[in-house]
Specification:
The structure holds three protein chains of three kinds.
Chain A: H1 2-26, H2 32-55, H3 63-79, H4 89-96, E1 100-104, E2 110-114, H5 116-138, H6 143-163, E3 179-182, E4 185-187, H7 194-216, H8 219-229, H9 231-236, H10 241-267, H11 277-290, H12 295-310, H13 318-332, H14 341-354, H15 359-367
Chain B: E1 2-13, E2 16-27, E3 31-35, H1 42-50, E4 57-62, E5 65-66, H2 72-77, E6 80-82, H3 95-102, H4 111-116, H5 119-138, H6 154-167, E7 172-176, H7 184-199, E8 203-207, H8 211-217, E9 220-225, E10 228-233, H9 235-240, H10 242-253
Helix pairs in contact in B: 3-5, 3-6, 5-6, 7-8
Chain C: H1 3-34, H2 41-55, H3 61-84, H4 92-114, E1 132-134, E2 137-139, H5 141-163, H6 165-175, H7 177-182, H8 187-213, H9 220-234, H10 239-256, H11 265-279, H12 288-293
Antiparallel strand pairs in C: 1-2
Chain lengths: 371, 254, 296
């Protein structure tokens, strides 16, 4: 029964995704798909962070760093020309095993680069390994210390991409190639593959949300929420709290890195702003607006806010809007705007379908105060 | 046979010698109590045993295995469970979910199995829920299963904590002042409950202030004063012990 | 390295170190009375500099600085009264997010008021090429201003906390808030006062530093993270250790220029922060037992 209830909102989501695509097709507004696709990738970061912050109770103000690690490594590997190093033993070894690929850039010049498939994998792996390495010591910290440490990590990544020629310094990396992630399915920003890419992005979101939803409803999810409740008692219940926190951290970092890789190849470029502190804060803001321990709230808010932001609705006040959102939500509705009166009713009706039982509502309310 | 054996355990907080060379053992199937005036180091001793604090010196043997310096979760999976003086429930979760967490050590679905929602985990989840429900029923609080724990009364919260500790199916149960904040009727009830727990084959080690409870149910008593063990004997003998009376019972009966 | 170069680096380090120490003390003042880390601390420094730069068009320099400090203090008070005062025992996470939000808002307002350009106050004495000779090396007189004003602030603050009843009341709140309230101290006013104080010292530091470091709308977060590094290095809440730690960080940074590329200079402070957090979160001068008692 519980299993069936969990599927209902996923089905809703899929129907909605298809409906939106059809709507843009018949109203002649397919240009919206671009921002919707980008929103989908940002949402992937948000839902991963939601599990880390809302359920396991660990704040991270450095997730843009993981996004950037994914995006930048994949971008750098697929754009830097290795042709001159062709005779280098290592490069020729890579070439021999098909890791490298010859292609022509926009100006007809021949490039020898790492095959995008391998570049993507390597980028994601790197982010995961970095998350593993720094996650150990970082997650021992709590409260302000954890916030500052993750913030510090984010700033270091930003400084590295800003100061390294390999990563394009202030200009970032452009002309990142599109490629076939599966035979016949091209990941890229081309006009003619817009619809396909919309579905690639949203397919990833659906897949991600199913996985995360499964996780939070499992034995592990329960353990994560108990860590949020009382880490000491959770430990005494036999839960390896540091390992659980670490795995969740790595999982959310992997989500961010995957989003970074895909969005970079979709956009064809990546710049240092993607690694900036404001980006990390923005992800936190969206999780907070969604209600912290509320995967669907985070997803809905992410799509709305990212879409509006990408459409330029907030103009030059873009960052200010997210700052204001943070303050207003934390002052007046710390359980997210879905926790407010009108939405509460809606949620009650939905709760049968969304999360199983009403106690879930209380969780997001009281769980919030425990961080 | 000794289930738990403590040898020359020490713990310093800066210059304070909170636990001073304490040794005793707990035999399987008994109820053993640790008593002593405030600040005698009882809770510290508990925290050393359950792994919440690392000892400054000495050994703790549980089922003939050295566990000193282990993390609490490592000790928990070996079959030791505890309650807290100031109840530590998981806020934001229901009574049932709290007790389901007690089943953590008795189940095994990990991150991968959880994320992929593998069919065998469904069965395990059902079992966890069912067992947890049984423990709630044992404490006659199953009607509060779906209530968030902060909305329960103090006594009910204590019952949930007991149920959670028992749900791990421990060999040894550590109870930190189980009667704190309860009236005499509730205290008597707790006493019966602890005896019933022992009858299920679970060894109990408790720290308690309430003399009547301790004298009623314990098989053996350890007396601590200023971090040192000053006596270890049967309840009747402890009541006769001059030194204990002077430092503890005398003071209490003033 | 010649002795001359060595002294140049040393003085540069002391100058920046003084600024970091003041920001760290700002953190400490608010932390001690509230248990909050005010992520908007760096913005006070920026506001002080910016307001003074604007006012100097209308009034002489000393008055501009005085008004800038007063205005920033008022802003600090308003921030506390509007956003923090009425919250009932907010969680740490909530406070972190609110102060981060505040820092973004202040920065964005500054961006729209003063745009992106880099500004600065004129040198208090002389100009950028005038210098005084100390120990055989030439340094700008502004450096002496910075070090002098920052030292004065530290002395004034410690006298304030030690000898005035208001200062004692603030310390009482820091030591035991509930007991202080029972003694009739209005703890809420003390919190407001702590924001006013740390806004004031931040703004004054922002003014004296402005000729050397320049003032830009987005200088806040960088300063905040360095100030926090210093606060942690000295042990959170310990203002005297913060002075030592501030000078230490400033000097390390200054000397690192000869080894590490300039672009990575900020990364040094953060790396130190991370290392300290991982190894000695209670600071170089604090004790681990005391830190263990703090709830994080």
């Amino acid at each position: 029964m519980d299993q069936v209830r969990r599927i209902i909102p996923v089905v809703f989501l899929i129907v909605f995704i298809v409906a939106v695509q059809l709507a843009t097709k018949y109203t002649g507004t397919p240009f919206y798909l671009t921002q919707l696709t980008m929103s989908a990738y940002y949402s992937l970061v948000v839902v991963g962070l939601c599990v880390l912050m809302g359920y396991a109770g660990q704040i991270s103000i450095g997730h843009a760093g993981f996004f950037a690690i994914g995006g930048y490594i994949s971008a750098a590997l697929t754009t830097h020309n290795l042709l001159e190093l062709k005779d280098n033993a290592f490069v020729s070894l890579l070439n021999k095993y098909g890791v490298l690929v010859l292609r022509e850039d926009l100006y007809g010049e021949t490039l020898l680069t790492v095959h995008p498939w391998y570049a993507c994998l390597l980028a994601i792996m790197t982010a995961v390994i970095i998350a593993f390495v720094i996650g150990g010591p970082v997650l021992k910290l709590k409260g302000h210390y954890l916030a500052m440490a993750t913030l510090g990590f984010g700033i270091i990544i930003y400084q590295i991409v800003m100061a390294t020629e390999y990563f394009g310094e202030a200009d970032g990396i452009s002309e990142v190639p599109s490629f076939n992630i599966l035979p016949g399915i091209e990941l890229g920003g081309g006009f003619e593959i817009r619809v396909v890419n919309y579905y690639i992005a949203w397919g990833l979101v659906v897949f991600g949300i199913i996985i995360l939803q499964n996780l939070i409803h499992s034995r592990v999810g329960r353990a994560l929420r108990s860590i949020h409740g009382s880490e000491e008692a959770a430990n005494a219940m036999g839960i390896h709290t540091s390992r659980y926190k670490l795995y969740t951290f790595v999982l959310s970092a992997a989500f961010a890195a995957i989003a970074g890789v895909f969005l970079t190849h979709y956009n064809g470029s990546i710049g240092p702003s993607e690694a900036g502190v404001m980006k990390s804060v923005r992800y936190v803001a969206i999780v907070a607006v969604g209600g912290m321990a509320h995967l669907w709230g985070a997803l809905i808010m992410s799509v709305i806010l990212n879409f509006l932001s990408l459409r330029g609705v907030f103009g030059t006040y873009d960052d200010a809007v997210f700052g204001a959102i943070l303050i207003v939500i934390m002052l007046f509705a710390p359980e997210g705007i879905l926790g407010l009166g009108i939405f509460q009713k809606l949620k009650k009706i939905m709760s049968g379908g969304v999360s199983g039982k009403t106690p879930e509502l209380q969780e997001s309310k009281t769980g919030q105060k425990q961080v | 046979m000794a289930l738990l054996e403590i040898n020359n355990l020490n713990r310093y907080f800066g210059g304070l010698h909170a636990v001073n060379d304490v040794s005793f053992s707990v035999d399987e199937g008994m109820i053993k109590a640790i008593i002593g005036p405030n600040g005698a180091g009882k809770t510290t001793l508990f925290n050393l045993i359950s792994g919440n604090l690392p000892p400054s010196g000495g050994t703790v043997l549980f089922k003939d295995e050295h566990i000193e310096g282990f993390q609490p979760y490592q000790i928990a999976v070996r079959g030791m469970s505890r309650t807290y003086q100031n109840i530590k429930l998981f806020h934001g979760m229901t009574a049932l979910e709290n007790v389901m967490l007690g089943r953590h050590v008795q189940s095994r679905a990990g991150f991968m199995a959880g994320m992929l929602n593998l069919p065998w985990t469904w069965h395990e989840e059902r079992q966890i829920r069912q067992k947890a429900m049984e423990f709630l029923e044992l404490f006659e609080i199953s009607e509060f299963a779906d209530i968030e724990v902060t909305n329960l009364s103090f006594g009910q919260q204590r019952a949930v904590e007991f149920a959670r500790a028992l749900a791990t199916e421990p060999k040894l149960l550590l109870l930190d002042e189980p009667a704190a904040g309860l009236n005499i009727y509730e205290t008597a009830e707790i006493g019966q409950l602890i005896s019933r727990i022992r009858d299920r084959g679970i060894t109990v080690l408790l720290v308690e202030h309430d003399m009547s409870l301790v004298m009623d149910i314990s098989d053996e008593i350890v007396v601590l004063s200023f971090g040192e063990k000053i006596a270890e004997d049967l309840p009747a003998a402890i009541q006769q012990n001059e030194e204990v009376i002077s430092i503890y019972l005398g003071e209490e009966e003033d | 390295m010649t002795i001359e170069l060595f002294l140049q680096y040393l003085f540069a380090g002391i100058t920046y170190g003084s600024l970091y120490a003041i920001v760290a003390i700002g953190f400490n003042i608010i932390y001690n009375t509230t248990g909050i880390i005010n992520f908007a601390q760096g913005e006070f420094v920026m506001l002080g500099g910016m307001i003074a730069v604007t006012l100097i068009n209308f009034v002489p320099l000393p008055i501009a600085i005085f008004l800038a400090v007063i205005l920033t203090m008022i802003i600090g008070a308003l921030i506390e009264m509007i956003f923090i005062r009425w919250l009932e025992s907010p969680s740490v996470l909530r406070m972190i997010i609110i102060t981060i939000g505040l820092s973004i808002i202040i920065r964005e307002v500054a961006l729209h008021v003063w745009d992106e350009s880099v500004r600065s106050l004129p040198y208090f004495v002389g100009n950028e090429i005038s210098s005084v000779t100390i120990l055989g090396t030439n340094i700008s007189p502004q450096v002496l201003w910075v070090v002098g004003v920052c030292s004065l602030m530290v002395v004034a603050l410690s006298l304030f906390f030690k000898f005035t009843s208001l200062g004692r009341e603030m310390r009482a709140c820091a030591a035991n808030r509930r007991a202080a309230i029972l003694c009739g101290i209005n703890a809420k006013n003390m919190v407001t006062l702590s924001f006013v104080l740390s806004a004031g010292i931040g703004a004054l530091a922002g003014c004296v530093m402005s000729p050397i470091t320049y003032t830009q709308y987005d200088m806040g977060p960088g300063l905040a993270i360095k100030g926090f590094t210093v606060a942690i290095l000295g042990g959170l809440g310990n203002s005297f250790a913060a002075v030592a730690a501030g000078l230490l960080l400033g000097i390390i940074e200054a000397f690192s220029i000869s080894v590490v590329p300039l672009a990575f200079q900020d990364a040094i402070a953060i790396t130190i922060l991370l290392i300290i957090l991982f190894i000695r979160p209670h600071g170089l001068f604090g004790s681990s037992e005391a830190a263990g008692l703090k709830e994080f």
